[in-house]
Amino acid sequence: MAFELPPLPYARDALAPHISANTLDFHHGKHHQAYVTNLNKLIEGSPLASKSLEDVIREAAGAPDKAGIFNNAAQVWNHTFYWNSMAPNGGGAPKGAIADKINEDFGSFDKFAEEFKTAGSTQFGSGWAWLVLDGGKLKVTKTPNAELPLTKGQTALLTMDVWEHAYYLDYQNRRPDYIGTFLGKLVNWDFANKNLKAAR
Ligand code: MN3
């Protein structure tokens, strides 16, 4: 079974004006689709073709001859996770278990937000900012290119794409504005709560 591009969990214009339908047309319809297409080509006819996406990522991670497979498989996973990390009318302070855990592990929501903004804005070049659960504690991390928490023994709770293709059509070079909007208007705390519950 070849991997397929999952549909967006909302309409293409549902995140506007914060992220435009034009950005989602390219980012989901072209970039995410290309990772799926490339992955399928790279694993066609190999034993990896019958494995789960997570198992493909684990097997390809750190194997120099499988770098292309890792990059495309991880980017398929990362983008699906990213779409779900946002919601129409999202953003702002969290509620529920994730709110309590953020207060416990970061001291306050503002401190978490500051760390998350710093991670996103200091990731040089392409990559991702994450909220993860690591050894029972919440942490903010950043990863370059396609790298992801799965191969580091961490559970991802939220992610923000900071590749230029994620924001350039709407924000041009203003990455900090995109990050501020992600936290203020887009972040899907229900998804983070669901991931936290599943990890406990
Ligand atoms: Mn992307």
Model description:
The structure is a single chain. The chain has helices at residues 21-43, 53-60, 67-84, 97-106, 109-122, 164-171, 175-186, 189-199; strands at 127-134, 137-144, 155-161. With 200 residues, the chain is mostly helical. It folds into two domains: 21-84, Orthogonal Bundle (Helix Hairpins); 97-199, Iron/manganese superoxide dismutase, C-terminal domain (minor pseudopilin epsh fold, 3-Layer(bab) Sandwich). Strand 1 (127-134) and strand 2 (137-144) form a beta hairpin. Helix 1 (21-43) runs antiparallel to helix 3, helix 2 packs across helix 3 (67-84) and helix 5 (109-122) runs antiparallel to helix 7. The chain is globular and about 50 Å long. It starts with 20 loop residues before the first helix and ends with a helix.
The CATH topology of the largest domain: minor pseudopilin epsh fold
Using only C-alpha atoms, the radius of gyration works out to 16 Å
Helical content class: 40-55%
Query: How does CATH name the architecture of the largest domain?
Result: 3-Layer(bab) Sandwich
Global outline: globular
Going across the biggest sheet, name each strand in turn: 2-1-3
- Our estimate of the beta-strand percent is 5-15%
Name of the level-1 CATH class of the largest domain:
Alpha Beta
Features:
200 residues, Helix Hairpins, minor pseudopilin epsh fold, 52% helix, three-stranded antiparallel beta sheet, binds manganese (III) ion, mainly alpha, single chain, 12% strand
